[in-house]
C-alpha cells in the first residue's frame, strides 16, 4: 500500500500543478501482489463538479475488469475450461464424463486435465483435441486432430506431434478411466488455444504414430469416435 500512497501523493502534486482534470487514472489493470487485482485505481478531485478541480483528492477503485468469455492472451490469472463428453450415439457403448482443464499461467506452461470417464471398454482409448467444435454431425464433424504446426501425429511426449495429441486414457475393468494429464503443448490462450475445439475419445488405442502406416501418422489408428464434447471456458 505504501507505493500506492506515494503514487497518490505524487499525483496530488501533479494535479495541483495542472489543476484542470477532474480525475486521473493512477493504475490500470492488474497490480502484482495485490488483492485489488483487476481493479483500476483513480484519484478524483473533490468536490466532483464538472469543469472544476478542487485541491482535495480521493483515491477511487474502479470496477473489477472481469475477463469475460474472451480468453486472456497474457496475465497472471489461471484460465479454466470444461468439456462435457457425451456418447457419439452410433455404437453400443455409453461412454461419458466431464473433463476440466486449467492453465495456471496462460498462455505459457502446462494445462492440467482431470476428470472421470465412465462406460468405456477396459483398456486404452485414444484421446485427442480435434480442430473443430462443430457437433452438427456428432463427433464426426469435429474434423481431424488439431495440428497448427502441420506435422505428423505422435504421442504426448514426442517433440513433434499434433498439438491435439494427448495420447491414451486407460479404463479399468469397471469401465472407468481416471484422467490426470499434464500437457505442455495445448494451451487455453494464444496460438495453441484449444478453447472451442473438440475433445474426442476413440474406440481403440492410439499407436502414437508408431503403427508403420500412413493412417498411424494421421490418427494413430485409434478407430471410431465414441464420445466427444466441446472445450468451453467457465
Ligand atoms: Cu481423435
Ligand atoms: Zn494426432
UniProtKB/TrEMBL annotation:
Gene Ontology molecular functions: copper ion binding; superoxide dismutase activity
Enzyme Commission no: 1.15.1.1
Stretches assigned to the Superoxide dismutase copper/zinc binding domain: 96-231
Gene3D superfamilies: Superoxide dismutase, copper/zinc binding domain (2.60.40.200)
Reaction(s) the record says it catalyses: 2 superoxide + 2 H(+) = H2O2 + O2
Record PROSITE patterns: SOD_CU_ZN_2
Family stated for the protein in its record: Belongs to the Cu-Zn superoxide dismutase family.
Role noted for this protein: Destroys radicals which are normally produced within the cells and which are toxic to biological systems.
Protein name: Superoxide dismutase [Cu-Zn]
Species name: Laodelphax striatellus (Small brown planthopper)
Taxonomic placement: Eukaryota, Metazoa, Ecdysozoa, Arthropoda, Hexapoda
